[in-house]
Specification:
alpha+beta; four-stranded antiparallel beta sheet; three-stranded antiparallel beta sheet; 24 strands; about 15% strand; flat; ADAM_Cys-rich; Disintegrin domain-containing protein; disulfide bond; metalloendopeptidase activity; EGF
């Protein structure tokens, strides 16, 4: 029989898996002076248990993504008790000046005491991506999070006041990408080509519709649109492009792996390949088509169902709000093209573009604004219309003079004869 403590560990592990945590690798993950909660042996172990450095890393990644936004909606109810801060978990908590993780993980040992979570000497910071090796906060405009997708994700910058990078910003879900053939979703241009290449390697591509129809019509564990009560859910005809991911393997040799089961099928001259087992990482199963993938005209997949894009919250018109000089981000603000300044993408020569949410220092750009540019343009137009009449008159006078000279020369020649 399982003990109450063991049952509690199981619940904690299930919740952890739900938010993107994975079971610990005992050779890579550690928990000082305690058993790790995500360790398989934790269920039968007694005593103190804490989350490992690996679990903390997985959790930080989860809360930085779209899936973790719901956790940012704090309840108005006051907590019945306040948990005590835990020094060394890499999370800055009350009563802590810094928290650079454990002794092994700490990158700011000259700035932060990893035992007490207090700043050393004159250090201004001791953790965070906007804290320098000299224990100072990075100047505004310093990149702190690189874009992971050239079309759908944006680079974030330090704002000059915080040691942490600002929240992640990306194109609003439903923004077109890849020359209008795909949609941005959670900061990625979602295509089956990219998803297949991630699983099977470079060269793998998304399969044609016939493969998806063949695979997701199986109505078993190899082809389905999810599970309910441990039973595979059959895909409706409109949802076959949103079930199991089907790919085309371009190489002559078969795909081999010791952790995934590749399933081959032949349909209408195509050799289709899909994954029979689950491939979970970061809170999602990569054996299925990713949310945001095109499944029809103005439609994309959401939770293994094909839905219309306008119904999914794409409520920002970049043509009017951003003057056609940018796109909307996930916060509903404009992310402007270079040469246009946020928040409304007004023309400003020399502006790096971006948004009011990316942390960049947009006030430092002091060149021509649209007003100044228009004034300069108006002067050019006015000068043109003033000079043009004089130029025309001068040209006519030259032409008349030349005609008179020719006439005089002709008369002189006739007189001499």
């Amino acid at each position: 029989a399982i003990t109450l403590e063991g049952f509690s560990v199981i619940i904690a592990q299930l919740l952890g898996l739900k938010i993107g945590l994975t079971y610990d690798d005992i050779h890579k993950c550690s928990c000082p002076s305690a058993m790790c909660i995500m360790n398989h042996e934790a269920v039968v172990s007694s005593g103190i248990k804490i989350f490992s450095n690996c679990s903390m890393r997985d959790y930080r990644y989860f809360v930085s993504t779209f899936e973790g936004q719901c956790l940012q909606n704090f309840s108005k109810l006051k907590p019945l008790y306040q948990n005590q801060s835990v020094c060394g978990n890499g999370i800055l908590e009350p009563q802590e000046e810094c928290d650079c993780d454990s002794e092994q993980e700490c990158r700011f040992k000259n700035c932060c005491d990893y035992n007490t979570c207090k700043l050393k000497d004159s250090a201004k910071c001791g953790s965070g991506s906007c804290c320098t090796s000299k224990c100072e906060i990075s100047v505004a405009g310093t990149p702190c999070r690189k874009s992971v997708d050239p079309e759908c994700d944006f680079t974030e910058y330090c704002n000059g006041t915080s040691n942490n990078c600002i929240p992640d910003t990306y194109a609003m879900n439903g923004q077109l990408c890849r020359l209008g053939t795909a949609y941005c979703y959670n900061g990625r241009c979602q295509t089956t080509d990219n998803q297949c290449a991630k699983i099977f390697g470079k060269g793998a591509e998304g399969a044609p519709f016939a493969c998806f129809e063949e695979v997701n019509s199986l109505r078993n564990s190899l082809g389905n649109c999810g599970f309910k009560n441990s039973q595979p859910l059959p895909c409706e005809q409109k949802d076959v492009l949103c079930g199991k991911l089907a790919c085309v393997w371009p190489h002559n040799n078969t795909y081999k792996s010791d952790v995934r089961s590749a399933v081959y099928s032949s349909t209408q001259g195509h050799v289709c390949i899909t994954i029979g087992s689950s491939v979970r990482s970061g809170g999602r199963d990569y054996a299925y088509v990713a949310d945001g993938t095109v499944c029809g005209s103005q439609m994309y997949c959401i939770n293994k169902t094909c839905k219309e894009v306008p119904l999914m919250g794409y409520n920002c018109n970049a043509t009017t709000k951003c003057r056609g000089n940018g796109i909307c981000n996930n916060l509903g603000n404009c992310h402007c093209l270079p040469g246009y300044r946020p928040p409304d993408c007004e023309l400003q020569i020399g502006s790096p573009g971006g948004s009011i949410d990316d942390g960049n220092d947009h006030k430092s750009v002091t060149i021509f604004t649209k007003k100044g540019y228009n004034t300069h343009q108006n002067w050019l137009i006015l000068s043109f219309y003033i000079v043009l009449p004089f130029f025309i008159i001068f040209t006519i006078m030259i032409m008349k003079r030349n005609e008179m000279r020719k006439s005089c020369n002709k008369e002189s020649a006739e007189y001499e004869r």
